[in-house]
Amino acid sequence: MRKRRPRLATPATEATTARSVGKTVDPSRFGPAVALSCRECGERYDLGPRYVCEQCFGPLEIAYEFTGVTRESIASGPRSLWRYKDLLPVPADVAEQANLAPGFTKLVPARNLARELGLRSLYVKDDSGNPTHSFKDRVVAVAFAAGRELGFTTFACASTGNLANAVAAAAARAGVRSCVFVPYDLEQGKTVTTAVYGGTLVAVEGNYDDVNRLCSEVAGEEPWGFVNVNLRPYYAEGSKTLGYEIAEQLGWRLPEQVVIPVASGSLLTKVDKAFRELIKLGLVEDTPYRIFGAQATGCAPVANAFKAGHDVVQPVRPQTIAKSLAIGNPADGPYALDVARRTGGAIEDVSDPEIVEGIKLLARTEGIFAETAGGVTVATLRKLLASGQLDPDAETVVLNTGDGLKTLDAVAPTSGPTVTIRPSLSAFREAGLA
Question: What is the pLDDT of residues 182-210, one digit of tens each?
């Protein structure tokens, strides 16, 4: 039993299971997954659309019994996240189903950025290469695969933007209905790139935490698969594939340091889970690694708790340009604290001007245009180096989780033509451009 209970993803007064569609669950269609397990008390439940423990209201996650997973079996799979299907709660034929097949994005050697920051070895795991240009395609793919086995035909979510894109696109490809809920003041780029897929897009007059609360209530009323509510145990497992890929792309070894953006905290905890699974299965050597979290100062409840030495994360009201990380009450915040402390890492935050500088620094040095979350991560990397918390001689991977074209407003005021000239050679020379 853990010493303290984390903040719940849903109010304790709600039902501990969402409304199901009445389909009989076939456990053989969930790969190596054998049960749902409470992260607090260890109570186990049959696989199904359940996400909160009935005993202690702790969050549930997938429990596995892995068999026959080798480097060779993974390498023989498709160049997508489905090459790791034997490590996920999905059916064996998942790659043949109608889906966006995300994953296996580039691990870019960032030599120019490393040189500028004074790092010996740095890589950018660039998940802007996914179908809807963010890492959310991974978690949605796994949630959809599990949700279809549970009988859902309508998929929904609460989102700060990227998840809305991913759910709407995945539903379009699968030929099912989507209904996504977002804050009303979302960036136009993320609103348009959700609406274009033709599903139902609901703008809610409130922040993300208001949207999430509403979705928890709707999930109790409608037989829908909310990917980050009643399908959350399956959804979260998709983030593990980022950790698997980093290890495989480094030649089946773990990096010494990883810097990861923190919204709910789930991504950070699942990359750690992936590393521990690879070690347990003997697929990588058991070498030390440190995990660092990155937040915007305008929404830094986990960073605040880390610096104060607290185990409990106090909610905040977000106020930052990094809207994709603007979750004031992060469900996995306490677990992110555990991972950072256990691995010897840290969780730091950066201001909005530092985020913009981080976006521009990555673009200028590596030709990668990151959204604001990527700016948070790069700026945090620089801040951790300056404070001596991050070792400049250790091999480091930094995650870019989304595309800068979705958050143009963040950099538009300070990005424009170097000079405007008349269409003549003399004007070109007068401007000193030769």
Answer: 999 888 888 999 999 999 999 999 998 89
* Closest by Cα among 288, 313, 249, 212 to 4: 313
Q: Which residues are within 8 A (CB) of 389 and not within 5 positions of it... i.e. 6 or more apart?
A: 292, 346, 348
Which helix (H) or strand (E) is 109 found in, with range? strand 106-109
The count of other CB atoms within 10 Å of the CB of residue 223 is: 17
Pick from 2-6, 42-46, 159-163, 388-392: least confident: 2-6
- Crossing angle of the two packed helices 136-149 and 162-174, in degrees rounded to 10: 40
Using alpha carbons, select from 191, 188, 151, 187 the residue that is nearest to residue 168: 191
Q: Please compute Rg for the chain using Cα positions.
A: 21
> What pLDDT, in 10s, does the model give residues 351-370?
999 999 999 999 999 999 99
pLDDT at residue 13 greater than cutoff 80: no
Taking Cα atoms as reference points, which of 224, 54, 103, 81 lies closest to residue 153?
Answer: 224
Write the DSSP symbol of residue 222: S
Tell me the C-alpha distance between 354 and 371, whole Å.
13
Residue with structure tokens 């299965």? 281
User: Facing residues of 348 across strands?
Assistant: 294
Residue type, 13: T
SS3 category, 239: coil
Q: Return d(Cα 32, Cα 45) in angstroms, integer.
A: 15
Q: Cα(95)–Cα(76) distance, rounded to whole angstroms?
A: 13
Please give the full DSSP string across 21-73, using - where no structure is assigned: --PPP-GGGGTTEEEEEETTT--EE-SSSB-B-TTT-PBEEEEE---S--HHH
